Amino acid sequence: MNEKLFFVGEPCLSKTTSFTLEFKATFKKKGMLLIDVLDELGRSRHQKKMTVSKGTSTYSLDISRYKAGKYNAWLSFGGQTIIKPITIAPKPKSLTWKMLFS
């Protein structure tokens, strides 16, 4: 059985930055991390490659230009891959629009 080289927590919205999704990840060694975000049809919407250090870090993803829907974040490190589902809710409609046209 292969030893897990990294662990990724559930993605969550940032408490300090609007439209930013954060992943907290822990790595057992230094290496190259590949993040690939795919939409429901399997199309790549974001790809990033970075060198990570041993230990725990938080990684951010700007989702401001993503349409509402379901996505999967594929995080690959040291030959292992973790897939995290992401659901982006529709942006709320303007209160002014509702008041004028309802």
The class by helix and strand makeup works out as mainly beta
Question: Helical stretch count?
Answer: 1
Residue runs with pLDDT of under 50 for 5 or more positions:
none
Describe the sheet with the most strands: 4 strands, antiparallel
What is Rg? 17 Å
The residue-averaged pLDDT reads 86
How many β-strand runs? 8
Q: In one word, what is the shape?
A: globular
Q: How helix-rich are the residues, as a percent range?
A: under 10%
Task: Tell me the distance between the termini.
Answer: 60 Å
What is the helix/strand order?
Answer: EEEEEEEEH
How much beta, percentage-wise? over 45%
Keywords for this entry:
mainly beta, four-stranded antiparallel sheet, 1 helix
Draw up the topology in text.
Blueprint lengths: L5 E3 L3 E2 L6 E8 L3 E8 L5 E9 L2 E8 L6 E9 L2 E9 L6 H7 L1
What does this structure look like?
With 102 residues, the protein is mainly beta. It is built from one helix and eight strands. It has one helix at residues 95-101, and strands at 6-8, 12-13, 20-27, 31-38, 44-52, 55-62, 69-77, 80-88. Strands 1, 2, 3 and 6 form a four-stranded antiparallel β-sheet that branches. Strands 5-4-7-8 form a four-stranded antiparallel β-sheet, with no helix packed on it. Strand 4 and strand 5 form a beta hairpin. The longest helix is centred in the C-terminal third of the chain and has 7 residues, at 95-101.
